[in-house]
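Appendix B. One record, verbatim.
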Amino acid sequence: MVLPVTYRRRYGSRVLAGVFVFGVLAALLPRSSSLAQTDPPLPEKPLPEKPLPEKVEFNRDVRPILSDNCFFCHGPDAGRREADLRLDVREAALEYGAFVPGQPGESALIERVLADDPAEQMPPPDSRKILTPRQKEILRLWIEQGAEYQRHWAYEPPVKAAIPAGHNAVDVLVGQRLAELGLKPSPDADRRTLIRRLHWDLIGLPPSPEEVAAFEQDPSPQAYEKLVDRLLRNPHYGERMALAWLDVVRFADTIGYHSDNPRNVWPYRDWVIQSFNDNKAFDRFTVEQVAGDLLPDATSRTRVGSAFNRLLLTTEEGGAQPKDYEARMVA
């Protein structure tokens, strides 16, 4: 296409002006960058070293070290295993003589980890894996404490933590974890920050200016507890808590297929909200969703809960392909 002469003239003048501006900026850039390079780099703040745990746990402290540094050559893959040594199974490691429980000084594992001779050192230098002094001490303490293994956490029976009477369980557990990491808890937030956090966390809505002022002026030592109780009684609490659960179960008001037609599944949504507002026990909450229609004491409410089983992609084509349905609804 041939442009008109007038347009070409205007276009050409704009291009020339742009080239001129670009040239000026390019001339200034090297000087600016050279000045920036003279600025001293900001000093890096070193991370605090984690204190050693009083009781070494295999899953938490030892397995990550062995998995990252040892299991590639001494793990479950028999085809890649070196020296016929397997460290992911306690019986195999003991049979090989990799360590002597309670005696780190007599354990080959510690001897090889601490070795200076490259021919004896583990992990070998050519692996480019280097254990930190803390990791070496963790392994030594673990063997000293008996070198006990643990199954995957999913197969370990839950143990209720011992919480001192009169203490908030969450605060105690968080405090213990912070101590393990060598961290200190943050200072208490001011009243204005507390009420805003509680409102957003529990009902998903901000407090009104009047509510903030009332909380700030409340001299009662139980002001915080009273605020929590009030928000837990708020109907919006169930709506706020239901958001996460409805995301997990992939709740949707439409079928999610072809024309994406609506479906009347809103009673299930309301059932979830009401369950949170009623503080329903989680085991009951789960059972009513999986088989609420089959319970001996089934009611219309529990049957609504079992609508969980219909929160899946469906079709209204008027036909069915068994294999396709099996893949979509069973698997």
